[in-house]
Sequence to fold (683 residues):
Amino acid sequence: MPLSPKVVSNIVIYRCIDYVNSMIQLYIRLAYAIILFAFIGMQSSVYAQDPYENVSFHELDNGMTVVLAPGSKAGNISVKIRVDVGSISEDQSNLGVSHLLEHLIFRDSRFDDEQTYLQLIKENGGKVNAFVSRDATVYYALMPSEKGEWLVEQFGNMLFDHTIDEEAIMRAKSSVELEIGEPSWLAGVLGTDVLAPVFHRYFPEAGFFESEFGLSDPSYSMNEIRLSSKKLTHEQLDGHYQSFYRPSNMVIFVSGNFNQNQMLSQIKGKFGTQPRREGRSVPSENPLSSNKPYQRIQWNPYGSPYIYIGTKILKPVAQEKISLYVYLDYIAHRLMKELRNKRGETYTARVYADERSGAGYGLVAFETQNPELQKNLQYVESLIDREARNGALTDVQIVEAIKLTREQRFELADVDADSLMSYAENYYDFRQEHSGKGSPYDVITSITPDEFRASLPGMFKKENAYTSVIVPYVYSKIEFVFISMISIVISIVVFQKALKRKIDETKIVWSQNITYSPAMFFEIMMCLIFTFFINHVLLSPIDRYVSVAHWYHSASLWPEYIYSSLSMFMFIGVFMALLALFPRKLMIEGDKLVLKSMALYARKFDKSSITLVRSLSMLDLITSPGIWFNRKFRFFYYSGLIWRKGLLLELSDRRTYFLDMKNADLAVSKMNEHLLLQNPPVA
Fold:
């Protein structure tokens, strides 16, 4: 039945209405999508920001580098000047010159006596300080942003427009001495540290950078540095300043709330007018890989077990370096989830890195429980072996790892002056090492999963493995005490048997003790100090060559226990050997004279070897120079009563003992009686 025109028109009208409604709904959904997309984009612009995008680099005509990191949301301004000079540029003749010069830079003879740039900047609402490292001297300050230009002006005056006189140098030396301490009494009297060649330059134990990359520095004692700092002259300080404090050897960093163009113009006017000049530079280094794993097992009976595991690095390219730190962050993140949250076997996992001249290490460090130490160490080793060396990381894992590091280390950047300064310095150092590669953020946002996966095997080669484990004990917490006691007992027993001489008590017809005054206590203390000295001399070659060997750390903690026991054995042996030199008792055993020592050691002399026995006072000995000639004296007279008689015993080989005895005349008489000697009791 055909529809009427009215019905048809109604249907058309309803369908048009439905179409219009559907289109309206579509536009509403599209509008919601646009709004949501805009919101997400706005959120990304707030949080997903490149912390390096506003950092700019400039070089002045005189060679000075300027790094600016402006941030309109910062409330302060931070200025930092890095001078490329530190302790590595010093030698025996000018130790401490970089540190003393750093103190002097804050002084100006045109100021009143109580004023320095430290107080001047503080009085104007800022804070300022400086420090000296191995290869840099750094001056830094923080002030409200409205005084930023004034602060730059003061830094320019401080570094390039000030005068120093002898009085300022003496005051600076006093403050340095209060900071680093005075020389020891002995070093002060002698004017040199006589122990430094033994304790600092005799088989010094190689640190990480020396053992793994051949990078070593001269070793000086604190006494040598203290003595040298006191002796530095105006000429030495000025020479050091002229050699290193030149614009081309400096970098100025400015971060915080400031106008970039105005700040650059001011820096050019204040620092750029300084003339370019030649000078010295920090010595360059060429690290060479040892091509073997770094493995250390350290004994700390009072601490918690700790694992440091990662890899050594040597001049990685930018992509490799970023990939390394991303992967280490990812390991630490998963360790927190697995070992802390799931098992309760750690407190926290952190990433550590250190570099020097392009060489260094990157590692993950975490505490663990002693029973779980080996299991957790093997767990991380298996992760590295499977994922980094054999490429088992999936694309999903790599994207997650990159996202974690990008967000945590870059996109959550604060906007205060100090945070901006840290990013400016980081970018500068990154450019110095990887010129033309952009910022670290450029690298991390451009790396692909395939590139990431391909860079890890080279970074985690087995010969570059880094493993350091701190172990408190193997079986029990008291094993340290037990091993120490066993070592002491065994050492005493062994050396007693080695030093003890058999004496037939049935043949002893007379004995008398050697007299020791209270001053003998100091003699024993000197003996103890000398024992430490000899022990150091004997153990230093072991520390240098044995205790850093791979086999020494490859098994367990037992080599450390053996070393500890050996050092205890050597210490007791040396100490008892020194005590054996001190006679304690004089005895007559049959036809022999016995001189028994404090360490059970006894010297026996046949009566035929005794050529002279006399009693005489210390005063007589001093005033009779003829007695001293052609004799090998063993002097054991400790009494301050120089008029009291002692016993002079001379042997046929010219060895001569002078012993402090309460009744020397009686001793002479007894020896004449029992050994049939004919010696006068009085000199």
Summary: Residues 1-14, 30-47 have pLDDT under 50 and may be disordered. Residues 294-471 form a domain with the Cytochrome Bc1 Complex; Chain A, domain 1 fold (CATH 3.30.830.10).
